[in-house]
Amino acid sequence: MATAPQPQLPLFYKDLLPLNSRDHGDWKVSPFADASFLANTHAIPLTVDEFVDAQRHFPIVFTAGDNPLPIALMGLNDGVNCYIGEDGKLEAGVYVPAYVRRYPFMLAKLNRDSDDMSLCFDPQAGVVGASEEGQALFQPGEGDEPRKPTEYTDGVLEFCRRFEQSGQRTRAFLEELKKLDVLMEGRIDITRNDMPDKPFVYTGFQMVNEEKLRELDKDVLDGLNKNGMLMLMHAHLFSMNLMRMLFERQSAQGKVPMPEGGTPAVPAGGTM
Hints:
The protein is of the alpha+beta class. About 30% of the residues lie in helices and about 20% in strands.
């Protein structure tokens, strides 16, 4: 079975195989027993189509660098996810980013010279294989006719297509933010009542500069309002109010590194 080109695999993915009826005609997919695959991940990629839903549950920030990406914070330090219980299950009622729901499938290019994308999966996820139970990926074949995808597989393919389309809208939004020059380096200082002289400082991310946003030309603001981008910026800014909540949740779980000698606790590598 040919492996798709993978110079650098995305978060969670350890391998990629193109799904096809010849090699996987009788394979099935089972649901994950738990969410342990994201238990040590504190930042999940997010699309702009999810901002309104996600901002009710997580802070939404942008990665550092010249090519920022929106991420939902499920923890404030590397390796910490405050929403995964000791049983490995995701807390009930919490919004699940589409990036997580897509796994272990994704669309990928098999030929670098072509823009065509094929449905692939991570065989190391442990939920796709030749098992007796689970959702069938292909319908039973008749004679020499190739097996056709099941309704389930068609649904997975459509979900992955919509995810790619959301990714395109996300890139357009980020290009607009860069053009408007409204992103700034973020910094969050949190002081606990029992440690007033030892603040916890989180940096290494970007956020919208409210002052620059307010100073934009009225016509520009009207355009951003009409195309929905202003609402996305506000959703991001509203979500920043959850930083304190997330800190308190992580602190209650005993997962906040203590500052030593008054030195702020900054995420490993100085990034979120």
